[in-house]
Amino acid sequence: MGQKTFLRWVIGASLDPADIKMKFVPLTKDRWSDFETLFGERGACGGCWCMLWRLTRKEFESQKGEGNRQAMQAIVDSGEIPGDPGYFPGTAGGLVLGGAP
Question: Contact 65/80 with Cβ under 8 angstroms?
Fold first, then answer.
């Protein structure tokens, strides 16, 4: 499946992927609720909350789920920018991670 076909499948056949504008902005305290909405109650993938790359396996497993969410929130609250959520007009739709773990 090509990129355009995939995007049409994801967003609906009535939209042309070329018309979609996605904007990436730093994940800051004021965007935390968007991050939680994007990741859902399970932290995206099995309670990860994008902490897998920042922890040893033992640490990750011991705080999987809520502990990882709290750890990521502490990073964001400290002022560090762990990544950039991507927004379709008005809706968080992706995340690009950056920076050193």
Answer: no
CB atoms within 10 A of CB 57: 8
Q: Treating both helix axes as pointing N-terminal to C-terminal, what angle do 66-77 and 32-39 enclose, rounded to 10 degrees?
A: 150
pTM given for the model: 0.72
Q: Which residues constitute the domain of residue 65?
A: 47-78
- Domain assignment of residue 4, yes or no: no
**What's the structural domain count of the chain?**
1
Query: Tokens 């076909």 map to which residue?
Result: 5
| Local confidence pLDDT in tens for the 101 residues of the chain | 454 444 444 444 455 556 667 788 889 999 999 889 888 888 888 899 989 889 999 999 999 999 999 999 999 999 999 988 877 776 777 766 665 44
| Residue 74 within a domain | yes
